[in-house]
Structures are given as C-alpha cells and as structure tokens.
Amino acid sequence: MAHPVLWRGKTFFYPIGNTSAVCLTQDLCPTEKADVLLLGCGDPRHIIYTVYTNSTGSQASRKLDFTCCDLESAVIARNVILFTLLADEGAAQRVPQIWNIFFHFFLDKASHDLLISQCKKLVALSSDLDSWHNGPYGHFLRMCTGDTLAELRRLWKLYVKTTTCSPSEAKAFESAYAADVKASKAKFEFVFTASRAAGPLSMYALKMAGDHYNIYWETGVCSAVPKRPSEVSHPNPTLAYSMVGDKFAVHYGTDPLSCFHLAEALAPTVGSARHPDQFTLKDVVNVCKTQFSRWCTSVSNVLRSQFPSSSSPLIIRCFVGDALSLCQALGYSHTTKSTSTAFPIAPWKTPCITFDPNAYGTGTQSPAPTTFNVIDTSNLLDYVGVLNIIAVTSPILQRTPSATLYTEGLSSPEDTLAEQLCGDIATMGLLLGLIPACFVSQFTNRSNMHEHIVRLSQNATQNHERLAWKLIGGAEKLLTDLDCPIDIAPEQLAGVFLNIYLNMFSHENVVRRLAMVKQSPESIKLSGIIHYHRRSFVEILGVVKRRVITDWDSTMNMLHGKIQNDRTLMTGMNFYQDLCCQLHLLGVFDVDWLSLKKVQEVHRVERPFVFRDWKTLPQTLCVVLVVPGDHLQPLLPDLDEAGTPVLQCDVRGVATQNAFSAINTVFGTITTSGQGDSKTAAIKEDATGRYGTSPLVVWFWVPSIVLVNERHLSVVLSVLSTPATCTLATKRGLDLSIFRADLGDEHFVYILRQRPNAVPESPEEKNLQIGGRPTKTSGACTFVTLDRECKKPLSFTTRVDIVEPEMKASLTSGATPTVNQVSMHSIAIVLGDKSLQFPFPLPIDAKKAKLRIARKSLYVEIILPLKLVLGDTDSDMFPVIPQGGDLALWNMHRVNLDQCVPFSIANKKALGWVNPHVSLMMSDRERRIPNGLTTGSTLLDVKHSLHFIFGHASGLAEGKPPLGYALQVKGEPEIFLMFYITDLRLDVGSHTMVADAWVMPSSPSAEKFEAFSQVCSHLRPSNMKMIGMGVEEKKAWMHLLVAATERCRTWEHKTNCEYRVQGAIPLTLESDESPICSCGAGKGTESFVKKYPMLRPLAPFVTRAVISPLFALSYIEKVGNLEDLIASNTPPTPAPAAVVRNMCAACGKEGGASGSLLICGRCKAVRYCSQGCQREDWKGHKKSCVAPSS
C-alpha cells in the first residue's frame, strides 16, 4: 500500500458532505469533455452541482464522465440510490422525498417506502455486472469492478432486510438506532461549522448554523422547527450500516446545510433592502432545498433526455475501495492495457483490483477513462498526505494546460503548504511536475473569508484551503511538451532528496519531537498522525526519476551514503533494509548488496534451516505472519484508545532489528501448498473482520539477505512509536510489540517467493516498476540550480545551439546576444534581426540574465534567476493558453454568470460584509506599503484598482454607483478601456462576489464614434469614474481583459477569430487598440440594454466580462485582521493607481516600460533609478522601511 497501515479504532461514517458544492469543470475549456476522477468522493453534491452549472450555454454540449471512488461502500450505495431515483420517471415530483432519504436520520412513511422500493429494484438488477449494465441504469451508471457491485448489493439487501424482520427485531433496531443518534451528537455547547457554507456572509450565519445543528441532531430532520413531526418515525436504513458496523455512526459534525451555498439565502435579493440579520433559519433551509431541487432537476433532465442505446452525455462510474490503490491500478491499466492488477482494493482487504473488461479492456467501443483532466481529492490529504496524493495522481493527469488536480484540507494555520509538501513549493513543483497555479500568480479568485471569521468567533485552530494544482509550465503558450524534463546536478538532487526524506520522517527525529511536545503539549496528538513510510518516499523518487535528466545512479549512490551517515533520525537506520527493498521492488535503484549476483553468492555460503528446500534465492522475499485471534482480542481496547497507531513488522535478531512499514493486513485464514521456493499461500478473508474470531494475517517484502545473515530471527508485529503511543507503551512495553514468532515457526510464519493469493498470471509487485527515464531531446533542456542547502531553486540554465545561418553569422562576427522578457515564463534571445524564444517552467527574470558565449562552438548558455519574490509579478499574470482549438485559463476559473445570483445594493447596512471581503485581497505585507507611493508591484496596483471599483460599484464609497468606469494611463491622452457593471453577483462555488461587467476597449472606428456620439450626453464626468494607472498596470489590465471575457464566455470563437489569425493573446498592449477578439462583441447584451437603455447604441461593441477580487494567499503570507474591517461598513477608498507611479523615490525619474528601476530589497515598497539615489534617500526612507512578513 502507498500509505502506512493504520489501526483504526474509533471511526465515523461520513454520508453527507461538510463543504459547499463546487463546479468540477470550472477550469476546463467550455466544450472540452470532462473526464473527472473523484477520490474520496463522499456524497454527490459536487456531481449534481456540476451538471447544473453545465446545463446552459456552450457547456451544455459537454460530455461528463465521472469516476467516483470512496473507501466507504455505504457512501456509494446511497449515491447510486439517489442517481437511480433521478433517472426514474416522475423524479422532479419526488425530489422532496429524495431530500428526506438523503439527509434525514428519520423518515416519513412515503419516503421510507420509496427508499425500500428502490432498493428492492436495485437488488434485482445487481446479480452480476452483465445484469447491471444491461439494466435500465447501466447505460449511465457503471460499476468499475465486480467487487464494487457485490458490496453495494450487500448493503441494498441490508436496507431491505430492516422491513422484513420480526416485530421484536424491528423494535430493537429502532431503539438501538435512536440511542446511537442521541449518543453521537457533539458534546460541544455550540457547533456552527455549517456557517462556512455562507462564504463571505458567514458572519451572519454563525447563530443560525448553531441553531440548525441542534435542531437537526435533536429531531433527525433538516428543519427550522425544533420538533420532529409524529409521522417521521422510521429510522433511515442507509445510515444504519457502514464500515463502522451495523449501527448509526454518522460523524458528530454532520449538518446538511454545509453542502449548500448559504450566501444565496443571506444576501439581499435584487429589489429587496432586507438585512442579512433579518433572514430566518426557515429562509436558509428553504434556499438549501431549492438549490437541491434545481441541481437534481438538471440531472434528471439530462438522464431522461437520453436513451439506453445512445451514447450518454453523463456517465457515472463507481468504485468502492482505496483511492491511492485505484490511482495506481488505473495507471498500471493505462500503461499495460491489462484489467488485472496487483493493487489491493483497500487496506485490510485481500482481493486486488480487477476492472470490468467490458469497460477497461482492449477493443472496447467506448473505453472508460484511465487518465483524467480533473482529479478532485476532497480532503484526502488530511488522511493520506499530499505527497502520496501527488505521487499516484500525477501519472494519470492528462497533459493539457487545463488539466487540474484539486486538493483541500483542514490544517493548522502554522502548518504551511511547504511543510505539508516536505519541501519548498517551487522545488517540489519542479521535481513532481505539479504546482498550485495560485502560487505562481500570487493570487486566487477563491475566498476563504469564512475561515477568518470562524477563527475570530471561536479562536479556531484550523484553516480550510482548496487548491488547484496544474502541470508546471502550463501557463506558457510556447511550451508544447508539458512533460518537458529538467536537469539537476546529481549532488544537488541527492541533497534535495535527503531534505525530503528527513522531512517525511521527521517523527523519527526525537530531538525535534521532544522540542515540539515541550513547546505545545497538544502537538503530542498531532505528531501521532503519520502519512508516510519508506515506500511512500520511493514512490516520490519514482515520479522524479521520470521527470529529471541526470546521472541517476550517481544521484542514488550519493543519497544512499547520506542516509547511511545521517544521525538526525534516531531510528532511521532501523528502516534501512525496508528502504532498499522498496527501491528494488519499484525499480528505482538497486544497492550493491541487493544485486542478484550478491544474493546468490550469499545463498551458496549461508543456508539457514528455513531455506533448506530452496533451490535458488530471489533478491526479495514475502514474509507472512499469522497473529492468532485469541491473542489479539484482549489487546483491542488498548489499540482503540491509541487513536490511529501505525502498524509495522520487525525482523529481530540477537543484535539486529530491521523494521518494515510497507505491510499488508487482513483478518482471515491462510492455507499453504508446496515446499521450499515453490510454496504458495492463499488467504480466505473473514468478512466480520476484527469482530470475528479469525487470525490477523500480515505480509510484507524483505531483502533475502536479511533472513540469511543471522540464524536466530523472530518476526514481530508492533506499533510505530510516536508521542501519541506513550500510553500504549506503558501497557505493551517500550518495543510496542503485539505479537512475536520465531522465523522458523511454521505455525505462524511463512516465507514465500510470491505474495499470498498470487496466481501465475498475476502481475507481481516487483514487475510494477517505474517507467522509462526521460532522455535529452534536440530542444533546449532546463538545468536547475538550487541553493547551497539544496532547498530552494535559484536559477535556470539553458544551452542554445545557434543553427540559423544569419544568427550564426552574427555570433561569429562578434555580436553579443540580448535577452528579452517575452512573458513571465519565457525569453527571446536576439541576434541581429533574428530571435529564438524559450519557455521555462517557472517565472524568470530576463533583466538579470547572464550569458556564456561560445562563438567557435556556436552556442550560448543563458543563466536566468527565478522570479518568485512576493509582489514581484509581471503584467502577464493572467495566462490564456490555446488548447486544441479552444482557450484554457490557467489561474482563473470559469463562471456561469447567469447562474450567479445578483444581490441588491439598495441597503448599505446590508453590505457590511463587502468591504471586509474585498479587503482580503491585501496581505499584511501589502497593507504596510504606503498608499500613494509607487508600490513596485503590478499585482498590488491592479488590486488597488479593483478595490476602488468594488467600493464604488457597491455604492459604499460614494452612495450611488457610477454609470461606468474609464481606465487611463497617466500622461496619455486616450482612455484605453471603458466598462459598465450591470450587477454585482455571488460566485457561490468560490465564496466570493463578482462584477457582471460589459467592456469596451479602445479601438477607434467610424461605427463606434457614431455610437458614442449618440450616448455622450449620458457619459458625464459626474457619473463616470476615471481610474488612472501606470504603464505596467495597463499591460496587466490588457491581459486581464482577455481572461475576464473568456471566463464567462457563452459564445463560440469564430473561425476567423483574431486570436487565431494574429496568433497573439492578448492582441495588443497598445492603448488605442483592443486586446480582445471581436467574437463576443454584442453577444447576449439584453441585460446590458435593460440596465442602461440610454446606452443601447453601445450594445454592439461591448463584450461581457467577469471581474472578481484577486485574493492574497493565506498559505503563503499573513492576510488581514478582519476585526477592524468588520467594524467599518465603509471601505477606505484606495488611492487611484495614477498616484502610485513607477518612479524613483529620490529624484522622481520615471521608470521605463521594461521596469528598469531598482526595488528596495527590504520593504519592496519603493524604487530607485540608481544606487546613489537609494543611498541619498535612506536617511528618510529607513523610518518607514519594514520588511514584509514571511
């Protein structure tokens, strides 16, 4: 398994989601087919909301293919019930009963009868895969494996069985169910986690969320009335069975309101002046039910509009099992085209994943996807670790700019993303090929204002963060190979590997661990959460091996030596044999002593008794340990109390102890056949698991030499020592042993050449090795140089061979190449009249490029420092990339504006949330930069302008919003952009607000002049807001306009679209020309004309755009104190960007368009034209020069 085996004592059932629904296709091109993998999918809220958001506009033609994976079979069983009910005739009329079935603990008779009737139907259809797929639901609802269908059928039969038992059994069931519901309610005084679902208005939802939680858990129904109706008396059987057992075990934090968008209920509707405080809990519940009805109706309409014989526009595939195993099996199937894999379905299970040949086999007419352009991992990183997720998902993420991996989790504000990644974000991105898009752009369109409010109200220690990861380098239009390899010197690569290793296993650093406990006793609990073992580390090395061009053997030999010499991890060498074994099994590297030749030499000399019948000895062996059930049963209470301790096996000798953490476990019985090296074993799993009487069977791989070098060995099942296991150590001893057996005791220990249950045609684990190494291509390769500590990347180096005749002539004649910045990720090397462009995976600074010129050998070597300093962004920070005839947005998600609810600005007191919300665009570092001076940051300049726009559009700045806005560079005569805002709307999926805008860039034409002449009397200085800015900010707005119009596009680009014809995006950066294509001009302008009838002549020239705040990244730097912002309903009007100029703070000299001024290295807030000016200004500047917070 890719994750350590955990003993799960106290567990919960999560049938209902705890975060608001999101649109899973928001980062794809509008008509791009969506191949979506949902890992830890939970309930289907994301699916039904995504179908709803794709029900209009150009997205309505999109094909949606969801593969849903959850370890909890009851989750999938419930989801299938919902989807099949929606596919049946009359679904729209039954939505209220479907709501009850899905969310209520207790059901009325009509809802209960509908549920049982549906379960009986599903049982009849699910005898086998053929029966299911040929049934009425099989054309859109597919089962990935036969094991999945069998498990779902078992649960549906249990649900039905609750209605066929005797009266006494029924009464006992109802009594136990009610008691479990009562016992499961949180013991906290106030639970308001559902307030997160209100996003920017969550300050108004705190009390309502707490009230609803109490009503929901007291009555078992989602209601504003604190009394359950008498007719609602039937226990909901879908909540009575789960992995926890045959009992109600729903998590105590569950609240259906968390799944929905409560901001829609709290924001004043257009035409209303109602304050959010005036909305009632009944209003909120009704809005949630309305949203559920809208989403379900959209799904039902799609399913009812298709025929079983036709290709379905919506396919939902189900898999019950482990997310990491499924990803590995999909990757293996994609590479080998085999439906049989060696990856276990789940921890504590013996069967391996075998896909349905009719869907995943070769020759299938419509094969199921094995790679995906959307992978959503829910909050799995809290349970399995972000590195494990990236290691298994990166190989199956499609290689397109729009392909996205989503992660989300609840972490401590002090637990930074770099700490979760076990390394610097940029470094890990280069090694693994994936990086958060917002990390590169330094902003996000998704708000986490609700997290700030929750922390203010209850001093919460958790922070919810959802990140979109993209293929590194995907923001660059020039980069055609998104698997483009990088090169790193072996000594530096070995150094960064060691740093990752030390961070992944920091729990073995006893000195650091004791310091943590001393500083914070609460960290004892946190330090017990272990996500990684040596196999996890090797999986990461495998991903890097596929990406990096270097002398791999030299790198690994250096790393091997560093690990052997490390003394930081006190118990690190205990896992040395485990590490070497996993390196071999995954084909990453073989240490010298593990070569087949060395093993055979040892076998000829050393023949322990256990190998008496072995003819040959392989490099690795499978050891099986059987722990008797009667020995384990007395230990269960102690193990349960230890939380989630990690299980491992040790091979102990008189003077040695080798630990192996990549183990497999299952409750069942084992039988063997054969002798010596032909012995095989088969395990029959006990479905009752820990609650039965069967022994616990454990197996793991070891290097053969471990079992040969010492005569008296024992095999031990034990618990990994962490501070959280201190109590267990007092009961089980310091070695935390659970069971021990001599290696030669054939009652309890078996040594095998193959794993248990392997058959001759099984793909063996040792054959599931890393794919081919990257090779140097004819193009330029990027060489990465790290800092001295091998932690952070400093520069990229690339060698450019000059082959073009004119460029060769220029170089040999003595000409010096110049390096120009083309985009934040690319440069152009200019020689004479010719140039060559080169992309890089991360932003670079061409102004600081260094050249090494080889005139005789005709090549140029360019060294480029990285440009990752906070605030130091280029104007092209909103990339729009051509992709397969369409356009992809790299760091701004798409928005269906017509589905974004507009809100009223009539009552300014009802908008107390707007200024705090918009103000979260600024980090504390940015707030310290004095307003009115040159900021030195194009991004901050844009943020100031956006703050100005939202302040006036909401009416909070001056009372009445202006008619329109005009953007102009100070010192230039022409306005380069005018736009008009028809509505402020809620982008509920991203917990933010957006402006529904109509933009008209400057591009003089006779028709436009004529239109202006008809409306100029209405466009007076009194009702137009002028926003002045510098040249660099204007360039940024040109890029932003392309992204803003593309984000909400409902029209198709024409075949003669200017983007295609001119091959440029944006089309221009000149003030008197339009940066956007004309394809969207005049499209869908009815709302514009309705809002501004006096501007009707402009309608043919305006293009719809979505303008949204650009929020600071709370996982990178400290963001805002909301207390002061919430206290004021009126936003401080930001200084127009015209006074924040690109000029020397000492002499006033203007900076050029290329940004030639020097920036203060400490505060990043002022610029100078020379070092002399900086020295001259220091006496005054040092009083306000403050370093930004990290």
From TrEMBL:
The keyword Zinc appears for this protein: yes
Organism of origin: Suillus placidus
Recorded GO cellular component terms are: nucleus
Per UniProt, residues of the MYND-type domain are 1144-1185
Name of the featured protein:
MYND-type domain-containing protein
Which InterPro entries does the record associate with it?
Answer: DUF4470, TF_DEAF-1, Znf_MYND
User: Which GO molecular function annotations are given, in alphabetical order?
Assistant: DNA-binding transcription factor activity, RNA polymerase II-specific; zinc ion binding
Checking SUPFAM superfamilies in the record gives: HIT/MYND zinc finger-like (SSF144232)
Zinc: is it a keyword of this entry?
A: yes
UniProt keyword terms in alphabetical order: Metal-binding, Zinc, Zinc-finger
